[in-house]
Amino acid sequence: MPMRDRMYWKARNHTRFIRKWFRQPLETWYLITGALILTLYRPWHLPAILKGVREGLR
């Protein structure tokens, strides 16, 4: 699986997990932190990460 797809699925699944199991104040902090860590790990895959977060929020 290409790394771009892996970053997309990681961001999407992380976002869905956080929305399901955490309350509102922690939810925002965890989502931002998770996306930031993925972005720092693979900055050139930022569009895929943001798309995964967006899809996870739906």
List keywords for this structure.
single chain, 58 residues, mainly alpha, 3 helices, 84% helix, 0% strand
Indicate the topology.
Layout: H1 3-21, H2 24-41, H3 46-57
Individual helix count: 3
Q: In one word, what is the shape? A: globular
Largest sheet, described in full? none
CA-based gyration radius: 11 Å
Q: What is the number of beta strands?
A: 0
Mean pLDDT: 86
- Following the backbone from N to C, one meets helices and strands in this order, namely HHH
Terminus-to-terminus distance: 24 Å
Describe it for me?
- There is one protein chain.
- The protein has 58 residues and is mostly helical.
- 84% of the residues lie in helices and 0% in strands.
- The protein has three helices and no strands.
- It is globular and about 30 Å long.
- 21% of the residues are buried.
